[in-house]
């Protein structure tokens, strides 16, 4: 067994706990400080992100990051953020074009004219998200569908926040749906054991798929599940 004194304690002697806890504590303080500033209304989420980035840079400098490493980090962030910002820019154009051409109104009128009712139309939306989730990534799905679906949901009386959560969960559920669930193929590519088959991964994902569907139904039935906490 493990004893005290000169006997081993199970902890590496060259990795003291004190500095590790202090380093982790500073990161936790930074995160909580940024969130508190946003919740208290001291800054917007965008401003909070800027404050958090500056705070992270300060912590990195304290930890001894080198100028070359800072340059590498900035370039890596740029490579990641550049395509996303381009997507968001194009999404804004896409949304405005849809509004100017009247496609959103046509889609809304078409769905309302089907006589399916609010729940039927919501089911159609979730079904579309499932199908798209099998084929493309979640960001693309959001950019393609939200400019059309959000006005329809608002017209039908769905709470915007609850509808947004339903949409996110439905899209992520679609990413697990056979036969083209992108998340399952991602897991397959990341698993070191090449003998693991896609069917086995799909079977393992079924319980999570069921839980996600149950949560979607639950929030659709009781929107307070999504709106209660933010309303505090």
Please provide a written account of the structure.
- The protein has 232 residues and is an all-alpha fold.
- The protein has two domains: 17-65; 102-227, no CATH class.
- It has helices spanning 17-39, 45-62, 67-101, 103-113, 117-135, 138-156, 160-174, 182-190, 198-221, 224-227.
- Helix 3 packs across helix 6.
- The longest helix has 35 residues, at 67-101.
- The N and C termini lie far apart (50 Å).
- Residues 1-5 and 9-13 have low confidence and may be disordered.
Q: Quote the average pLDDT.
A: 79
Order of helices and strands: HHHHHHHHHH
Count of all domains: 2
Q: State the major sheet.
A: none
Contiguous runs where pLDDT drops below 50 for at least 5 residues:
1-5, 9-13
CA-CA gap between termini: 50 Å
Q: Give the proportion of residues in helices.
A: over 70%
Per DSSP, what share of the residues sits in E-state strands of 2 or more residues? Answer: under 5%
Please tell me what the overall shape is: globular
């Amino acid at each position: 067994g493990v004893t005290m004194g000169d006997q081993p304690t199970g902890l590496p002697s060259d990795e003291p706990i004190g500095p590790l806890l202090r380093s982790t504590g500073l990161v936790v303080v930074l995160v909580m400080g940024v969130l508190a500033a946003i919740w208290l209304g001291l800054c917007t989420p965008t401003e909070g992100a800027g404050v958090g980035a500056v705070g992270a840079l300060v912590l990195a400098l304290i930890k001894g990051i080198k100028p070359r490493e800072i340059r590498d980090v900035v370039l890596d962030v740029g490579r990641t953020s550049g395509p996303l910002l381009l997507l968001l820019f194009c999404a804004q154009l896409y949304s405005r074009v849809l509004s100017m051409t009247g496609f959103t109104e046509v889609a809304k009128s078409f769905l309302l004219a089907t006589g399916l009712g609010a729940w039927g139309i919501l089911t159609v939306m979730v079904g579309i998200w499932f199908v798209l989730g099998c084929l493309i990534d979640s960001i693309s799905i959001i950019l393609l569908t939200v400019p059309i679906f959000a006005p329809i949901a608002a017209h039908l009386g769905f709470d915007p926040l609850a509808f947004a959560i339903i949409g996110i969960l439905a899209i992520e559920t679609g990413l697990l749906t056979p036969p083209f669930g992108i998340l399952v193929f991602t897991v397959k590519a990341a698993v070191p054991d090449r003998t693991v088959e896609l069917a086995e991964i799909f079977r393992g994902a079924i319980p999570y798929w069921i839980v996600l569907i149950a949560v979607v139904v639950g929030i659709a039935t009781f929107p307070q599940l999504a709106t209660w906490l933010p309303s505090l």
